[in-house]
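Hey, I'm writing a tutorial for new members on how sequence and structure tokens pair up, and I'd like a real worked example in the thread rather than a made-up one. If someone can provide the structure for the chain below, I'll link this post from the tutorial.
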Amino acid sequence: MPRGFEGGSAELVTRVQGGKLDLPVAVALEKQGGDLVFSPRGTARQGVVRRGGEAVHTLRWSGEGRSTTCTVGPPPAPWTLAVRVDDPRDGAPLQLMGCGLPGVYEGGVVRVERPPGSSCVVQARRRDGVLVAESEAVELAPLDGEHVDLVLHVPAVDVGGIGAMVRSDPDGVVLTDVPPGTPAALAGLREGDLVVGADGQPLSGLRLPEQIARVTGPVGETVRLQVIRGGRVVELEVERSWVEPEDLDLE
């Protein structure tokens, strides 16, 4: 039975503890020698053969029982990711988050290399002033040495805000200015109001971008804001609308 067997599915761990291992895998391991470190990746399973702590071969196998196949490959290699963003609003600032990506997206295809055996989540975000739209978050866990091509789609729906100038507070966001004619002003919000919740979700303990993300949403939809004013809590309904970024300010 190979030494150093770690992780894996309950079924495969049971096989090893019981002194059993699919024959092609056992034969491959015996030929290569060393310890086996196992990491499952979907239907294909992968093991790294180590000698003296150094990775010398990769075993990959699939199937069950007599239909199991096993291949021996070179030592684990990094996997690579090439990602681009499809954004219907040309020119708006974009961010790429996760997987070691650079943060600011300047167009084209962005390529990064990730360590063997690693996984990560990648997402694109468009930020127009205080307005936020995000792509679907994609979880990646490729086999070592694989290349992943990914296109992230930022939604075309206009994301609207309430038009107030704000600063972050431990309990929520404080409105520092409510310009006339903005959705906030039309709903009755005032300068100095402390917004502590949006649609029942608390804003306390969050960073300003996360607080703003809870207040913003599709243009034309409403958000119910829980506001502390004069020591009491009031609830106001605001219809989100498109707000020009240059008219907004964050402190």
